[in-house]
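Quick start: read one record
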Amino acid sequence: MELLLISKESNKIHISTDGLYSDYTIYNSEGRLIDGGILIGKATGGNVNKLISSVISMAKGVVDFSSPYKTLKDEEAMELIDKLEEQEYQNMINKAKDIEEELEK
């Protein structure tokens, strides 16, 4: 299952569950990757609501994440996640170009 939670501040959490493991990725309102990790199913007992609450609690340590939350699931979530990943990739390429230009000076 794929979930994308969007906070009132437009910060985002992507949660991907597969069996016992759940990956999470936290993006800021500009779409920049901030943090991420893996949770093992025993930590949440397989309960999706507990999983979401746990990840939101962790996210609040690095970004503002206030309710109300918008929740996108599966295909709808993946469409936006693909756009976020493309944007992050472009940001990385631009940063590398800037560093190369600085080194050439």
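The first strand starts at residue 2 and ends at 6.
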